[in-house]
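This section describes the prediction task in plain terms. A model, or a person checking by hand, is given the sequence of a single protein chain and must write out its three-dimensional structure as a string of tokens. No templates, partner chains or ligands are provided. The sample shown here is typical of the held-out split.
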Amino acid sequence: MMAEKNKIRGNLVVFVVGQSQIQRTLKQMEQLDSLRSAPHYFGAIVPAQKIIGTEERTIRGQKIGFTVKAYMPDVIIAEAAAELDDIFNENNLDFREEMANNCREILQKHKVRKETDEEYSVWCVGGYHGSPDTFLIYGDKIAGFLKSEKLPLDEKEIEKTLEISIKYAQNDLTIIDWDGAFVFDPQNHFGSALEMFEIANAQLLRYRILDNELEQRMKRVNQLLKEMDGKKLALKSREIKQVVRELIAIRSASVLEFESTERDIKLIGDWYSARLYDLIAKKFHFDEWRQRIHLKLDSIEDIYSMISENFNVSLRARLENISLIGWLILMVGWFILIVFEFANLAK
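The expected answer:
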């Protein structure tokens, strides 16, 4: 198949990743009759997805298959796949948007939080002969689709977008951007790349959720500190310490989870998959997310130390005041006794 400027057949996979309000244990998931493993390309090292539902919907007269997948304990993915007669047709952006909206509707059935999700599109081209570089005559459309942009892009922006790519064999090519990717493979082997994109988006979702959760709880601690004065410190300190303990628990669990996932990815042993994940991580700014979260976690330690110090100082001050009052009472008592003693002597 020659990559002349005519209709190019392909496939579009759109998925939305969200966090469910329901946390399932492994035992609970195993008890679901409909549960089965999704195709998995990385062995037992990387956690496999579980399929928890499928359905078919009609969009613009075309039947689209939807698959609902889950990562333990609460990450849900709604994935839609469609065949396209002309993958570079400009109307495909609107079609993609409708697929994504349907994915979100399906996620709501699984109690997924509306406020935070990750949407991604993978445009797949296969069944061709020769180098995929011949498809770069569509570079303007590839860049526009990856950025979900209908307006013509500047040539430099197009070149910059196409640079973020990876090749394994002579005849394959994967171009990566923030909102989507183009995968060219003459053998139509798209499964492993698709799973890697879903793993990365699930990781990005966890970063965003953790960052937001830390931000909200830190604001709560700061508000409690502002509301306190010396008299209220004892009353508020228990509430503050409880919030800080929750933050520290979140820190421990999240850091272990993130480090475990990224370590497992590096242990895959598949050069292409490991390189692909590194490229996605760079595009998704995982290093910046980690730094941002670690800064907030360090702030938690500072807040906890400050609270402990203030509480100890306040406690010492209260004990000193109690001791002083005790001495005053004792002195008054002795004074009264002395007065009575002199009164008796005067008689």
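For orientation: The chain has a mean pLDDT of 81.
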